[in-house]
Amino acid sequence: MTRRVLIVEDEPNIADALRFLLTREGFDVSVESDGAKALDRLQAVAADLVILDVMLPNRSGFDILRDLRSGGLSAPPVLMLTAKGQAQDRQTAEALGVTAFMTKPFSNAEVIETVRDLAGA
């Protein structure tokens, strides 16, 4: 069974690199660059995992995570992948219910391993 991953990332180079890595590993990957469109896109693609940046146009990753976790629906695991790696950012993400937190720059092998674990692949 192919697992679906939604990448919510506004940096084209990072989004393209993640898409390449995960597609090569057999994942079905979609990308959304606009924070305001992330939740609609998540429902449209029925993602098994969300990779979420914090700093996005129109809506922050923290706001998106808050909505995902308070929606009452069964929300997928969320890997927050961000350049904002300060302790406060990690604490905020954890308080909002993030599944895993990783800072940029990241190791390709670490991202792949974490995605496999979280998506149940």
Annotation keywords:
alpha/beta, globular, five-stranded parallel β-sheet, 121 residues
Structure notes:
This protein is α/β, with parallel strands linked by helices and 121 residues long. It has five helices and five strands. The protein has helices spanning 12-24, 38-45, 61-70, 87-96, 108-119, and strands spanning 4-8, 28-32, 49-52, 78-82, 100-103. Strands 2-1-3-4-5 form a five-stranded parallel β-sheet, with helices on both faces. Helix 3 (61-70) links the parallel strand 3 and strand 4 (78-82). The mean pLDDT is 92.
Order of secondary-structure elements: EHEHEHEHEH
Low-confidence stretches: none
Task: Give average pLDDT, whole number.
Answer: 92
- Describe the sheet with the most strands: 5 strands, parallel
Summed up, the helix count is 5
Instruction: Summarize the amount of helix as a percent range.
Output: 40-55%
Beta-strand content bin: 15-25%
- Derived from helix and strand composition plus strand pairing, the structural class reads alpha/beta
